[in-house]
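Feature request disguised as a bug report, sorry. It would help if multi-protein outputs had a clear separator. Right now it looks like this:
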Amino acid sequence: MLKRYSLLWRLALVLVVVAVTTMVVGTRITGALRNDAQRLNQHAVAVMQGYAAAAEQAWRTGGQAGVDQWLADMENRETGDIAVISATDQSLSSAPLTQQQRAGLHFQRGVHSRMSFRYGKKMPYLGVPFPAVPDQGSLLMQLPPRLRPGTYWPLIENLLLVGMPTLSALLLGGLLFWRARVPLTALQAQVLGFKDDTQARVTGPLATRSDEFGELARSFNHMAEQVCGMLDTQRQLLNDMSHELRTPLSRLSVALESQMSEAELRQRVEQELHHMRTLVDDTLALGWQDTETGTTDLESLSLPALWDMIVENAAFESGWDKRRFPCALPDNALVYGNLNVLAQVFENLVRNAIRYSPEQGAVQLLGQREGGAWHLQVVDQGPGVPDDKLYAIFAPFVRLDVARAGHTGFGLGLSIARRGVERLGGELWAHNREPGLCVHLRLPAPPRV
């Protein structure tokens, strides 16, 4: 979902600003160059003013005959219509003005006026007053093709139409590349550094940015924390497992060196092998949950039916009567989860409760629906645990022998249960009762029908 400060909005804003700026600047530059291209250059102005001065001189020295002679000379020098007219728009030569010349007289331009590009190959008429006595006459002449301004304007205009957007795109691309490369380079450095130092984290402004780069940096930090936690857990698990295995192995070494009978030795070996097999199975289950990335085959499960299945096995293993496992849930209590995972969770919780329950104790399942989840409680009648250890009991290989002395186990059951519940998107915690321990589970429930 796009956020208020998403990088998309910033890029869109930059693109809009660049596009509008390019259009405005391009229009102004094109307009300014176009206006300049429509005006005669200094050389052309000087040529036209020189012709006007020559026509004036011919009129002042030779009159009508002088103008005729000058016009005859000009026909050999320039193409197009040429006429010398009076202040009353009458021809100063012996030839009257033609209809075309009179039409040009009405649309004549000055030497400093802008020339239109719409004339095509037809040259515009220029009116140039006599320089000395402008009130006596002027030169009316079609602009010579060689003096026409803007000859290369179509090429320049096309270059501007293509060049301005291209230049803007290159500048924008370079800016965006630079802006994106800085945080990406910083992220890359942290990722590469994480290989050698697992404490490497993205810090500074990059980690607090409100756009996608900031989210990526925070996601990397979160991932790094999880990886470090998994590595620490695995190292602790390996250390604890090696310690737990060393004890039965030491007892086996002592038994082999002792004077025990063959039957006693076989019994001891069988006991220690069962001890180690249980440890390995529980450790593998815990390690499998650490490496599992998701839970498949999720379905709606009946909690009373699941509890009946758990009670059946628990009663057989412990010798308890099934009536010592009451369930206070309605028959339509459903949760959304995986059958195998939930069965393992409840088996570990019930076995743990049985292990620390007094004679004739009971293990009860309570719960109520809270919104989109079921809040369940597995309650025993044992001695409970110290309040400051309520969180620690869910860590691997934690055994509170002071509170619950005389009981065996590796301290993996509650850890396996908690990770199973978390994989299903739930929560698991505990608190003491009077008497007993109450383990809470919050599991997602399917929508109400």
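(second protein starts here, but nothing in the output says so)
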Amino acid sequence: MITSKVSCFIAVVLASLAASAQNGSANYHQVSIVASSITIHGQTNINKFSCSMDQPSLNDSIVVKNIWLNKKLEFEGLILKYRVDQFECGISAMNRDFQELLKADDEPYLYLELKSITLHPHNDAFEQLDVDAEVEVLLAGVRKKIKIEGGKVINHSSAHMTLVGDKDLLMTDFYIEPPTKMFGMIKVTNDISIAFEIGMRVSSI
């Protein structure tokens, strides 16, 4: 069971919340993305594939509203965007196919918005915490709310954290029709998995 001291520490790490903040009160913080990566895993009837993007630190920080309530930290404004044409699948032809699949010409960005982080009830080692997260993904012009179960928050310091998570989805969740290639001999399955890793530094405003 998390003690009140550890809970306070977690609150500081997750959003640099002041120890004196009231439960349920709103706070504003400046969040700088140190680094982030996102990978989409998929498969065909022949093999598996992964398309990834590593995004270095961003110059601009984000002003984020957050509320700490019952071991749940809610966010407003923590939105990351990724250029679809920067996904790397390992083969240039596959890169083009993947961008076409995600409708990159019409929808050039994938957006990932972190909505909340909820601590699991039994977290004894606060250096790495088991959490659930709620995110909103805008992909191929379709917005979908997703619950990430079994994610991790890695606390590097009192103001530096990394959120890691993944989720199994379907292409058709985003109204993407799984394609076929080579006159139907190669078929992409409907199942995909989105994995992400977001490193953040947080400071009070």
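Even a blank line would do. Unrelated, but nice: The domain at 4-204 is CATH 2.40.128.110 (Lipocalin).
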